Structures are given as C-alpha cells and as structure tokens.
Amino acid sequence: MNEQFRVAQATGAGNSNNASPPRIFKLTKPFADQAVVLNLGYDQKVQVDFSAISNEKITLVHIGEKLIILFDNHSTVTVEPFFDSRHDQLGNLTIEVAPGRDLTVAEFASAFPIINDPSAASAVLPAAGDALGQNNAQASGANFSPFTVDPLPPVPTNTLAPQEELPTFQVDFPTGFVLQPTTPPAPTISLGTLPELVVDESFLTAATNGIDGSGTGPAGTTVASGLLPVTLNVPGGQQSLAFALSISAPGVDTGLIDSQTGNHVYLFVENGVVVGREGKDAAAAASGLQDFTVSVDGSGKLTLTDLRSVHEGTGENGDVSEGTHVPAGLISLTATVTDNSNQSSSASADVGPHLTLQDDGPSIQVVLDGEERFIPNLTVDESNLTALTNGIDGSIHNGNNTATAWFGGIFQAVTGADGVADPQHPISYALSIDASKSTGLVDSQTGENVVLVMNGTTVEGHTASSNLLVFTLSVDSNGFVTFTDDRAVKEPDGTNPDLNEGISIASGAVTLTATITDNDGDTASTGIDLGKQVTFLDDGPSIVVNNSVEPVVAVDESFLPNGSTPNAALTSATGNFAGAFTSVQGADGATIAYTLGVSAPGANSGLTDSLSGQSVLLTVNGSGVVEGRTAIGGDLVFTVSVGGTGVVTLTEFRSVHQSSVDSPSDISEGISLNNVANLVT
After folding, report:
1. 157-190, pLDDT tens digit by residue?
2. pLDDT digits over 408-443, tens only?
3. Alpha-carbon span 311 to 321, nearest angstrom
4. Main-chain dihedrals φ then ψ at residue 168, nearest 5 degrees
5. Cβ(488)–Cβ(516) under 8 Å?
6. What number of helices (H) and strands (E) belong to the chain?
C-alpha cells in the first residue's frame, strides 16, 4: 500500500493538566485495507473527534482497553487506551460526536452499540442519540447502514501472516509529528454530451439589437442554459472541480455575419466569458457590438445569451426559424479536477456545434382594419381618349387617360430582428399576370379579345390579332400603381343614353404582390387581385336635332296616271335629312342609322283620299316604310321611306284633297302630313 492517508490530526500541547485545553485527535477514514493505531496515553487531557467520520459506515468493537473502528473499505483505526477507568476518574478523555455534544467514555459506550466480537460485527453507529437526555446537544449527524466484514481467509502456507498485534505494543507519536503521506493515484475525469443550447432571434429587443424581433412563436428565448455532465474518479479526495471556456485564438473569425452591419463576428474571452463581437476586422471587433456571449459557472452550467441577429440559412420564404451554429473548433469548455494531493486532470468539449442561433424572418399581410384602410380603385373614362392612341377621339378627348393610386397602405409588414436594407422602404412591389386567365375585355373597334403580356415589369393589354396596345399597368417602388388606357373596350351593356357604365379586368388575371426582404435574405410576400380594382368607363355616342333648315319633299298630283300631265317618274321626290342631326360617336366608334316611325299604328294623317273620300291612315310596314292607306278600302295612297344616308323618299299613288278649290284654274297648292310622320334615329 502506498496510498496517502491521514487518520488523526492532533492539536494542542503534548503534556497538560486539568487546567490546560485538551489535545484533540480528529479521526478520518483511512484508505482501503489500511490499519492504523492511535495511542492516546494516560497522562494528558485528550478529546477524540468523531465528527469527520459521522457519515461513514463503521462498526465499533471493544477489546480490552482498545476501541477498534472497522470501516466498510476494510480499513481499521485502533484507539488506545480508550476503555480505561483512569480516564473517567481523571476526566482526561472526552469524545466529540457532533459540534456541541461531548461525551465521556461511559456515556459514549451507553449511547452507541459497541460489540466484543469483530467476526459477528453487525451493529452500526446511529445517526443521533438521546439516551443520555442531552436534548440541548446537537445530533451526531451519523447516517450508517449495516454492513458485513468478510472473514479473513486461511493463511496460505506460502504467504506471510499479517503483523501480530501485541497487547503491550503501542506507537507513540512525538508532539508535532506529521506522518509523511504516500501519493494516491491521480484523479480521472470524463465529460458527457454537451447540452444543446438554442436561442431564437424572434425575441430580441431593441435594447441590445437596435430593433425588436417579431416575437412570433413558437415560444422561444434569447438565453439558454444547460449543465455539462461530468464523471469523476478521485482516489485522493476531491479538492476542487473547475470549469473554464477558451477560444482557438483571440479575435478568431466565426464566419457568422451580423445582420444589420454586415460585419463578421469575432471571438474574445473577457473575464472568463466568450464574447462574439462584430467588426470589419478583428481589431475593430475588439470594441464592436456584442452579438452573443457564452459563459459557464462553477457547477458546469453553460449559458448562451443572444444579443444581436446574425445571418442564417440561404434566404428562405417566410419565418421558418432556421438555425446556424458557431463552427467547430473555435470554443472549448474545459473541466479540471484537483485532488487533495494537488494532482489534476482535465477534459475538454467543443462547444460551438451545440450553440444554435435561430432566425427571425419577416412577415407581411394585407390589413384593411380601420376607416382609412381600403383597397383603392383605378378608373379611367374612355371619353378622354384621343385619336393619338385610340384612332378616334372620345367625346371629351382631353387626353386624361391615366389613373394612379397608392396601394402601399394596405400592406402591413414586420421586418423581424434582422432588419431591412432600407427601413424607409422595406417593401418591394411587383405586378404579375396569369396567362391562362381571360381578361374579359374586347377591343371596341377591332372586336378582338384583349390579351395580357409582361413587358419588363409592366403589364400590357394587347388586341389578340392586331397587337394594338389597349392599356398598361405599372407599379413603382413606393406602391403607387398607374393605369393607362389607350383604347376603348366594350362595356357589357348597351345603354341609351350613355350611362358611363364600367367594366373591369377579370378576376385572377393580374396580381399585385408586396414582398419584404430582410438583411438575412429571407422574404415574405402577399398579394391582391388587382384586376377588379381597374375600371374602364364607357364613352357612349350622342345625337341631337340641330337648328338647321330641314329639306322639303314635295310631289305634284298632276303627274299621277289620271293627272293632267301624267309622268310616273315625277310622282316621287327625295330630300337628305342627314344634315338635320348632329352626332358624337364617342371613343368606341359609332354609326348612324335612320328609321321612320309614326305616332301610333293607324294614326290619322289628316289627309282624305280624293276618289273614295276616305281618311288616310298611317302604318309602318315590315320594311320600315311608312304607308298611307284609305281607312276602309286600304288602298295605298303614298309611301315615305328613308335610306341609310338619311335621304327620305315620298312616292304618291292616289290624289288627296287639297285645302281649297282652285279658281279660276289649278294653282298646285299643297297639303302636308301635319307632322304625324316623324324621322327618328
């Protein structure tokens, strides 16, 4: 055996009388299989302190004057003389079983089980004893369980027997003597798996990060801790266990990038704490902003504290909380155990791969809450179109064919902890089309469907065959959308008069998308159906009767077959009434059609057929010709027709009464229809 041991430590003088303080022997547990004898002597005042072994498994054995203490590691301590009447008579020996509780030998023997047969040892020292009635004394604190002592095997013939203990043999240590210890085996230490420390940038605040994180779930934290598992074997007794963090080199570059500054993060050890600081280089980072810290306390609890956001991932869509780690080999945690002989052993673990910084991505949504939030409309009136783009002028043709509205107000974005490159303009806007969707629009002049194409970032509507530009939609960096109408389209309803009705682009054909991109490259997008917010207002035609002199259409009955000068060619007369009307065709383009009508079918014309004396009644036949026929016989008296150019033709077949009798001869006086027949458009 060459293990170090210390069984008792003596204090005080070697010789004393009753007035002097006792010499104190403090008992400690020997190393395995050691046998130690402690001689107290007879002529000095002595105290034996059992408090250091109060929690050991021991058996007390009384043999002669000796008290033998058997330990569970097969070691023994023999105290002698212990059971000697002179001790009690002189009061030289006291036993301290706990602070404030000192017993005499007799009290000790009655308070604790002491046996006389070591081979049958089963008694244990109790945790406390009140048998002496010393309620004012502290309990001993012992906590023992029964144990058995293996009997000594037979001594082989080729093995020397252990040293014989002679009853009269004793070892007396001189006052101040220090037993020279032997060196125990060096301690060993091993480390378990490091805990995974995960922090979420979503919960950073402006206090450390400059801007608040989004705070979106799942629930997370910016501080994470975990205990490093350690397994020790310290034969020489543990003096200390210490933990320390270190880095591969001062100012080493982690490769992590601070999201807001774009600088790399470098490592430093400051008062035992590993600090990650941002900077353009290691020298600048020494005084740069702190991105995170890693610390360890005396119990081996490792703590990661996140202070600023860094880049994670490769630019994801939406907040997916992807994580990044400190690269391996940069941060080490070392645990060192030291025994009572000042022998040390250490073990280290690579910390970086166990540190996870989770991303806080941006978010965006359409918000219409509140009285002032609504989706704007873009409306253009085709009346303002000009021949420059439309081929023909609209009814107003002032060229005001554009409409602009701000759509940025309906989008609400959260940048997250990484921030954005331009805080004043965090959102970008873009237009897109679904080529599979119909616009629902038809060009008024060509009758062709309007189809969508992308010209760079601008949406264009073209006629399907002739490729004429009908309209454009564009959006700028601030979210202002501009609608430009170049040609008229057909509105769904034909109205009389022009009601300025509108038509919009079919749903799903055009989308306005708003996107926020943070400094980490992460994006979030949302959009609205823009087509239904775009309206083309109709420009219908108009026509009025002007104040010009209307032509007179007259025939002479003299040319009838039974007239005085028959001439069939001269029984018809025409007049062009087109000039009597003023029209505006509008942006859609228009044609003028002329029709005749009567105030009512069978209306009395006010004329009388000369031959029959019957009234002449008016009707419109299936060809749109006004006919005057006798009321009873239905004989055709005259017709009035109009052509496509507004030329009216009057043809007479029978004579009608004139307003007076000619005298002295025929003066060809005339009679009219009294405005019963009306030209209409």
Report:
1. 555 556 555 555 565 656 665 656 678 999 999 9
2. 999 999 988 888 988 888 899 999 999 999 999 999
3. 11
4. -95, 0
5. no
6. 5, 46
